[in-house]
Write a structure and sequence with these properties.
2 copies of one chain form a homodimer. Chain A has 148 residues and is α/β, with parallel strands linked by helices. Helices cover 47% and strands 18% of the residues of chain A. Chain A has a 5-stranded mixed β-sheet with strand order 2-1-3-4-5. In chain A, strand 1 and strand 2 form a beta hairpin. In chain A, helix 1 packs parallel to helix 7, helix 3 runs parallel beside helix 5 and helix 7 crosses helix 8. At the A-B interface, helix 3 and helix 5 of A face helix 3 and helix 5 of B. The complex binds calcium ion (CA) (2 copies) and zinc ion (2 copies). The site of one calcium ion has 5 residues of chain B, from loops.
Chain lengths: 148, 148
């Protein structure tokens, strides 16, 4: 799977969440051989959960896996990962994080690089616009999700 | 609530998880006014979840909260927090992290301090012994939980 195909899955998840009245951030975890391990979106509204962000939902939906399954894997996410999702990628030794955009929020990209994770920012207009629209529409919900 | 009372709740959670056949790590999130916001334990076995560690389960069980609810709060955890749980505490601006022990696993304590979080290690023998016993009994399950 190439990076634009991986990000497209993450963006589909983000749109699904938006259409559910949720926070439009999606993610997909792809193994080193290109197999999709799991995909998911922020579930703060849908589950009432503060720990189901896009990336952690993709991990949750990937289920229990041995460490070797994450080796060489890529986490696709529509938005720059927050501290929690940054840490989740580090815990499991995810090798690459491919980010739709970091204009609406800049998360732990520097720390990921410092810890040896490859970070790619695609600066995708669809991701940027959907997130901008959401922040305009529901600023309080967005603040809650990033603890501000 | 003093630190030994907070840690006692986290340890009760750890024992519950051990008795369920799960990973014996527990946590409790206590607000600045001493109110218990939530408590929980690792749910890898019980839920098949790679994102429900002790600390993230305590956050999950605390539900949706505004940022101000976490101000001045303390996360009690029986074991030094992994990168994911370290990041979760940073995301929500938790002020203190009180740790039962860091002999069996040393997590993101240095990074928490670097980011301005107060870290206290109680070096509690009950926490240390329960975790040691678990690692002896189920080394593969433990490795899976820390991505090694
Ligand atoms: Ca998210
Ligand atoms: Ca745990
Ligand atoms: Zn996140
Ligand atoms: Zn953890």
């Amino acid at each position: 799977m190439d990076d634009s195909a991986g990000l497209a899955i993450a963006f589909e998840e983000a749109k699904t969440s938006y259409n559910e009245g949720g926070i439009p951030i999606g993610a997909a975890l792809v193994a080193s051989d290109g197999k999709l391990l799991g995909r998911g979106h922020n579930m703060r509204v849908q589950l009432g959960s503060p720990i189901h962000h896009g990336e952690t939902s993709a991990l949750f939906n990937s289920g229990r896996l041995p460490a070797r399954a994450y080796k060489g894997s890529t986490m696709y996410t529509t938005l720059s990962p927050c501290d929690m999702c940054t840490g989740a990628c580090l815990l499991y030794g995810i090798s690459r994080v491919v980010i739709g955009e970091n204009t609406n929020f800049l998360g732990g990209e520097g720390y990921l690089k410092q810890r040896g994770v490859e970070v790619v920012v695609l600066d995708n207009p669809d991701c940027r616009e959907l997130m901008s629209q959401f922040i305009r529409e529901k600023p309080e919900l967005w603040k809650e999700d990033i603890g501000t």
